[in-house]
Amino acid sequence: MTGNAETITYNVTETDQTVADAFGDRMVDTLNSGALALMISVGHRTGLFDAMADMPAATSARIAEKAGLDERYVREWLGAMTVGNIVENYPERETYHLPPEHAASLCRKSPTDNIAVFAQYIPLLGSVEDDIIHCFRHGGGVPYERFERFHDVMAEDSGQSVVPALESHILPLVPGLVGRLKKGIRVLDVGCGRGRALNKLARLFPHSQFTGYDISEDAVSYAGQEARALGNDNATFEVFDVSNLEHTNQAAPYDLITTFDAVHDQKDPLAVLRGIRKTLADDGVYLAQDIKGSSHHHSDRDHPIGPLLYTISCMHCMTVSLAQDGEGLGAMWGREKALEYFRAAGFGNIDVHELEHDFQNYWYVCRP
After folding, report:
1. Does residue 168 sit in the same domain as residue 302?
2. N or C: which end of the chain has fewer CB within 10 A?
3. Beta strands of 7-87 (E only): which ranges?
4. Which CATH number goes with the domain that contains 190?
5. Rounded to whole angstroms, how far apart are CA atoms 309 and 289?
6. Per the UniProt record, which residue ranges are transmembrane (predicted)?
7. Residues 70 and 210 in one domain
8. Which residues of 124-148 are buried (b: 16+ CB within 10 A; e: fewer)?
9. Where are the alpha helices (DSSP H) in the chain?
10. What average pLDDT score do residues 153-158 get?
11. Is residue 117 assigned to a domain?
């Protein structure tokens, strides 16, 4: 040992065969689980789980007929569901049944507990694997437009994780906010996507004015169409690069600004946050949802969906930022770095909340 330096010696021993065998078994389980995730996504997108949810045990032909699908494909899919212990198979009658206990986690009738929605991330990310491999070797990133179904999946994700909890859990995090919304305030949602959350707020609080910004023309168009269909005359959506927010001159400050899982994948997250601070009224509130995690890998080992979140970060959130020559912060930037960025943007009062039903997110209430 010299000075403060410490030499650590690692003992390399022969392979522990028990450990090696256990890890091998784990890898096989991982392959099976990955395959099932893909087939669960298929079951969700084709409506097979929804079709089976209210059915007694039925043949593959009957299930295919109800779902409006080709029987041969349905039969093979049922094979995967059977060996994966998701669907029950009665060989003597050649019938299949989705237990109600399983349907609760796989069907659209479960608006907040449908795990099948999240299974869609696996094929979505797999579709850009070649692009990601190229980035591993040469740097750079994969642009938003390569993720063809991203906004579809995110809208479903938001539709069962954020939108149903707005009234019951999220808005109450800010004392007095509901009363202010009822009277009428100006609200901005930065990175609004398809506008599911903002359109619900506009419908709930007709005396307030709501604006949504997003860089995606398709998402903004969808949000605007939904606003018109709902009769939300108090909601407008604009295509706007929110990295430039701090350089614009707003006609009047906003009383409430929200971001729902939208900061970490920006080209310049700190610039976005500075823009939010600039356009927020002195007595306003910035409410941010972002991924629950630590800024240190070892601290996320016990996260219930840590591997999934790091995979989404690597293959989407980080890379879309790098594709813009951005920071590439990634979804798992963590609470410590988030607080650092909020303070650097000019927020002096920051409260961090966790919701009992939500193990995926932190909810930050930020004031000047």
Report:
1. yes
2. N
3. none
4. 3.40.50.150
5. 15
6. none
7. no
8. bbeebeebbeebeeeeebbebebbe
9. 17-46, 48-53, 60-67, 71-83, 100-103, 115-119, 121-126, 129-138, 150-161, 177-183, 196-204, 217-230, 269-278, 306-312, 318-322, 334-344
10. 87
11. no
Are residue 243 and residue 177 in the same domain, yes or no?
yes
Same structural domain for residues 140 and 83? no
Summarised one tens digit per residue, pLDDT across range 58-106 is: 999 999 999 999 999 999 999 999 999 999 999 999 999 999 999 999 9
Helix (H), strand (E) at residue 300: none
pTM for this predicted structure: 0.89
Number of structural domains the chain divides into = 2
The residues, ordered by sequence, that sit 6+ positions from 5 with a Cβ below 8 Å of its Cβ are: none
Q: Collect all residues with Cβ–Cβ distance below 8 Å to 58 and sequence separation of at least 6.
A: 52, 66, 95, 96, 97
| Helices first, then strands: H and E counts in the chain | 16, 9
Task: Using alpha carbons, select from 255, 257, 253 the residue that is nearest to residue 213.
Answer: 257
Let me know whether 210 and 336 are in one domain: yes
d(CA 271, CA 273): 5
Range of the domain at 79: 17-111
6 within some domain: no
Please report where in the chains the tokens 């939108």 appear, as a residue: 163
In a domain, 9, yes or no: no
Same domain, 94 and 50: yes
In this structure, the answer to whether residues 298 and 191 fall within a common structural domain is: yes
Nearest partner of 342 among 362, 361, 326, 366, judged by Cα: 366
| Kind and range of the H or E run holding 258 | strand 254-260
The answer to whether residues 55 and 169 belong to one domain is no
Q: Give tens-digit pLDDT for 172-188.
A: 999 999 999 999 999 99
Cα–Cα distance for residue pair 175/215, rounded to 1 Å: 31
d(C-alpha 154, C-alpha 43), whole Å: 18
